[in-house]
Amino acid sequence: MTAATEPTAPTGPERPGAPVETSEHGWLFWISFVVGLGAMLFGLRGLLQNIPDSHFRIRWAQWFVGADLIHDVIVAPVIVGVGWLVYRVVPVRYRPAVRWGLIGTGLTFLLGAAPLRRTAKVPNGNPTVQPLNYSTAVATVLIVVWAIALVWALAVWGLGRRDGEAGGRSAPAEDSDDPAGTVRG
Amino acid sequence: MGETMKEPADAKRRLRIPAPPKVGPFRDDAFTSPLHNEKVAAILGVALGVCFTVCFVTGLISHLIQNPPSWFTWPSRPAGYYRINQGLHVATGTAAIPLLLAKLWTVYPKLFAWPPFRNVAQALERLSLVPLIGGSLFLLTTGLLNTSQYRPWAFGFRPGHYWAAWITMGALVVHIGAKFATTRRVLLPAPATAEPVVVTPEERRAVIERRTFLATIAGAAGLVTAFTIGQTVGGLNRIALLSPRRVDVGPQGFPVNRTAASVGVLTTARDPAYTLVVAGKGVRTPLTLSLADLKAMPQHEATLPIACVEGWSVNRTWRGVRVRDLLEMAGAPANSSARVVSIQKSPRLKSAPLNHWQAHDPDSLLAMEVNGEPLDIEHGYPIRFIGPNRPGVQQTKWVGRLEVV
Q1: SS in 3 state form for B76-130?
Q2: Cα-flanking dihedrals φ and ψ of residue B358, to 5°?
Q3: Are A111 and B220 in contact (CB under 8 A)?
Q4: Which of A24, A75, A182 sits opposite B182 (nearest CB)?
Q5: Interval B15-63: pLDDT, tens
Q6: List of chain A residues whose C-beta atoms are within 8 Å of the C-beta of residue B49
């Protein structure tokens, strides 16, 4: 590998387990805070003017805050849990391929959720909305996603074999599990 | 760096908040993946910032076109711009879904950081994350479901989505102000040093894992785009498997947004006594024209897109009478504005404004044919308005009146 393609050394917070981000609260922050707060208040005023009914305002707030809560309390822990499981079960070199497959699967179901729900009823009596057989469509996309994952895993396997033969060993040492035994969420 | 150096000063003002027990996500070693990393967060943040800015600007343009304030006049050219605008709006919103989920996962450990804030500025910044994250998820969720015409909320989509976008973008501006220096620091190349850089195997693996992860997320964004963009990019129509529309499916080979039955025109639109009235402010000779009268007038052909606010769009060739010819025939004042009014019973989207550019554009038609066939009733038979550079909801179907305003 040439120097140009060599990964750069991680420094400071790039180390595993280091803090994710830091913030700086200088003059730029305070200017952006004033501008951003103005936009937020403008949006809130527009919302109150254009959704005058308190019932609908409450429904809006439920969706707005609920989306955040559902993510933090349900979606994110599930993703962390699946990540933990992959970390425990899948050898390290195949994890990227499996991760791709799982992310692709999740997104496919996310985008396919509303169309899949449609099977019982044509939306608004309009047959041109969601006109496909979405069970087949979703299955087709999943086949594409996992075919890519399989090719990826096979490529990794092939490269591992080649490197093993060239170096006189069968698999890279990095196949070992996390020595600390910690959650890789 | 800034936070670390300010630590002693901040500590004097620090609130005494009891620390949670070191269990579950509050454990110091709860999240050890190298992907919970400020560089990953910064790269995903920049990508999201671009997507959200494109979404916001295109959404703002679409909103202004549909609710024009006095200072805003939308031109009728370029004819296909609105198609690009709305295609971009929906495509960037869709591509932002994997980016947002990846970003939220990357920074998830920060949710459990203790103390939650160290000073007033940090408290404000963290407070702004509620509208930022809630708003981002709200916008992408409601936007995605709206494209499928599945609206399980009670409030109106348009005001709910549009004003939430202002709140979210305001919170995003605050977030950018707080993270700008950090993002700049981690994304710009580090200054060269005389000392050789020692890369440990663990650090090397972390960098490779980070790059693989980012490539995976980019691939995921590409995946959702590839399987949905065909609703507006014709060549990819056949692989639009996750798109709620197929632009080749529907009466006369393209979709409809509102059916004739849903607005109660199945009988009235087929009435042999159907007439078009041209009247309004300053009109010298109000007109009442039968379909035969309209067909006897000079016909004009234009190839224009139907571009739905929900993201699908398709080009078709329309044939009919120019609006400007009708205005001239009725003796309307020069450069007058107008509006087209449907015969539909439902008041929602019953009429659409035509500013002076749109009313006098040579391609603004009251069309009676599409692709060489009489309009299907679902596409506005016997007469629909079609004009350049407009959202589909303003291409009014089943037109009964052309009013000068």
Answers
A1: CCCCCHHHHHHHHHHHHHHHHHHHHHHHHHHHHHHHHCCCCCCCHHHHHHHHCHH
A2: -70, -40
A3: no
A4: A24
A5: 567 788 888 899 888 888 889 989 999 999 999 999 999 999 999 999 9
A6: none
